[in-house]
Design a protein that fits this description.
- The complex is a heterodimer of chains A (about 290) and B (about 280).
- Chain A has a single domain, classed as Carbon-nitrogen hydrolase (Nitrilase/N-carbamoyl-D-aminoacid amidohydrolase), CATH 3.60.110.
- Chain A is about 25% helix and about 30% strand.
- Chain A is built from 7 helices and 14 strands.
- In chain A, helix 1 runs parallel beside helix 2.
- Chain A is globular.
- Chain B has 12 helices and 4 strands, in the order H-E-H-E-H-E-H-H-E-H-H-H-H-H-H-H.
- Helices cover about 50% and strands about 5% of the residues of chain B.
- Classes of the chains: A alpha/beta (about 290), B alpha/beta (about 280).
- At the A-B interface, strand 10 of A face helix 1 of B.
């Protein structure tokens, strides 16, 4: 079996304290290594906290070895692959809600959040610049894709990653819990779980998802990491509202079996999609 | 949604987990281990007291009983039942002398003014006990009263954090029953207890059961007033509640600061209270 052990981290953060959060990352990485993890996945903005507002520019990093916080994580990635969230600043002082994939001491991939929720309780568009690329990337375990929270509330980014060759989709979130009714999980939890399962099923791909826990002022974050296999079946699930290190064992051979049963990737009509999308855009409907 | 289909049922176990976690984390992030709750003998403060005791440990919660001479006699008894069952510490500090010290000079004050004076005297006592006990004041205002503005600004509304402010009264009662608030407290008619015979529903002119369902549609489900009428609520009731919510909004926001500089607190100087913690 081609196995991949993914440690999904449900962690709390100190709001605006890079050094304290870095230490939590390094401790968690050691814990994950003890459990033979191949990859450790942290939540959205795991190095900074979520509701940053005017803290955003003061916490921004260049993803370079000369940056001490980044260098420490590069070093840690010699032992285990990492995906984590931080505020990236580019050379022209634009700030991005960003995820970095590090492996063997190198930066493998950067994803800048392409959909910044700016409605309801969200105000990301006020503080962050919009990313404009959705790219799959090669790792030593296969081809992956990484998205940040609202990115996967739009069908296009997971779809593009799938077409770009990603067989493992890594979704990281800082999802404020909301929608209390008689159900045992919040509505926000159930929304995310439904779409994660749907993407795994529709794309016959692995979907690993994790979110932070804790509170920021009155907002709660619900954790609830999940991994779904290419049949859409749940592999594992973390607790709600509690810190946890959730180990997902992905049997990568399941990709072959699922796609032999359900060849939706083989049969995907990309030229048709492109033609119709062009027509729709030209007609001004989207 | 027809008004008959509206459910305000909540999963009390989940609410309890989130709210006790909130109290624990937000009190500690502010640098405290303890909480102070004004316990009146009513269900809102009883629930808050139970949640605080569970979150912080009963020994870390101080219930402050602050009767006035016109308070209903059973209020203090109910408050003591809450204290006993929750296992928290308590202190009895009647506000009669301080209230009458002012009202004695204000013979023209009507009962609304007198009620506000009482609520604000209790705030003074609570914040003093906060300093004495080294605990944060934990608020007891529910979502219904916050939306309706059925509260005294800088009085009962004053607190350092509020765990129950996003629960309608109907929902709060479910959670109160689940955490073990004494039956006598659950069963009695809600009252601010500012004058003899006062009840919330008598003063407001409608029941919590009725207004909670309307507020749920208007606020949580984003129904327009016309949608609410179509759902079965009387037009006059919808308009009266909407107008009340609008008029009372000043109690829900910080006082506006007149902007002069390039960076002004509240507009473009934006940080959470949890900044750095």
């Amino acid at each position: 079996m081609a196995g991949l052990r993914v440690a999904l981290v449900q962690m709390d953060t100190r709001l605006g304290d890079l050094q304290a959060n870095l230490e939590r990352h390094l401790e968690t990485i050691q814990e994950a290594r003890k459990q033979d993890a191949d990859l450790v996945v942290f939540p959205e903005l795991s190095l900074t906290g979520y509701l940053l507002q005017d803290l955003t520019p003061t916490l921004a990093l260049r993803p370079l070895p000369s940056e001490p916080v980044f260098a420490a994580l590069l070093k840690a990635s010699r032992q285990v692959d990492l995906l984590f969230g931080f505020v990236e600043v580019d050379s022209r002082h634009r700030f991005y809600n960003c995820a970095a994939y590090l492996s063997q001491g190198e930066l493998t991939h950067l994803h800048r959040k392409v959909y910044l929720p700016t409605y309801g309780l969200f105000d990301e568009g006020r503080f962050f610049a919009w990313g404009d690329q959705v790219r799959a990337f090669d790792t030593r375990f296969g081809r992956f894709g990484a998205l940040i929270c609202e990115d996967f509330w739009h069908a296009a980014p997971p779809y593009l990653l799938w077409l770009d060759g990603a067989d493992v989709l890594l979704f990281i979130s800082a999802s404020p819990g909301r929608g209390l009714n008689r159900e045992p999980a919040l509505e926000s939890t159930r929304w995310v779980e439904r779409i994660n399962q749907a993407y795994a099923s529709l794309f016959t791909a692995f979907v690993c998802s994790t979110g932070r826990v804790g509170y920021e002022d009155g907002l709660n974050f619900w954790g609830g990491a999940t991994a779904h296999d290419p049949d859409g079946e749940l592999i594992c699930k973390g607790p709600y509202h509690e810190p946890a290190l959730v180990l997902a064992e992905l049997d990568l051979d399941q990709l072959r079996r699922s796609r032999a049963r359900l060849p939706v990737l083989r049969d995907e009509r990309t030229a048709l999609v492109q033609r119709e999308l062009t027509r729709i855009l030209n007609a001004g409907r989207a | 949604m027809d008004s008959a289909q509206i459910s305000l049922d909540i999963n009390t176990q989940l609410a309890r987990q989130i709210l006790t976690g909130f109290i624990r984390q937000e009190v500690r992030r502010a640098g405290f281990e303890r909480g102070v709750v004004g316990v009146s003998g009513g269900v809102d403060s009883a629930l808050t007291c139970f949640l605080a005791a569970e979150a912080l440990g009963p020994q870390n919660v101080l219930a402050v009983l602050m009767p006035y001479r016109s308070s209903a006699p059973d209020s203090e008894q109910h408050a003591l039942q809450v204290v006993q069952k929750a296992g928290v510490r308590h202190v009895l500090l009647p506000i009669t002398a301080m209230v009458d010290g002012l009202l004695g000079q204000l013979p023209q004050a009507d009962r609304i003014r007198a009620g506000n004076v009482m609520a604000r005297c209790r705030m003074i006592v609570l914040y003093d006990q906060s300093a004495e006990f080294q605990g944060l004041v934990i608020g007891t205002g529910n979502k219904t009263e916050i939306l309706l503005g059925y509260t005294t600004q800088y009085g009962d509304a004053a607190c350092a954090l509020n765990p129950v402010g996003d629960l309608y009264k109907t929902q709060l009662r479910q959670l109160a029953a689940a955490v073990g608030v004494p039956q006598a407290v659950l069963d009695k008619a809600p009252s601010a207890d500012l004058w003899a015979g006062q009840t919330d529903e008598g003063e407001l002119g409608f029941t919590y059961a009725e207004v909670d369902r309307l507020l749920y549609l208007m606020v949580d489900e984003r129904y327009s007033p016309e949608d609410c009428v179509r759902a079965g609520f009387k037009r006059e009731f919808v308009q009266a509640v909407l107008e009340r919510v609008r008029k009372q909004h000043f109690k829900r926001v910080m006082p506006p600061i007149a902007k002069l500089s390039n960076r002004t607190v509240g507009y473009d100087f934006l940080y959470l209270r949890d900044w750095g913690t």
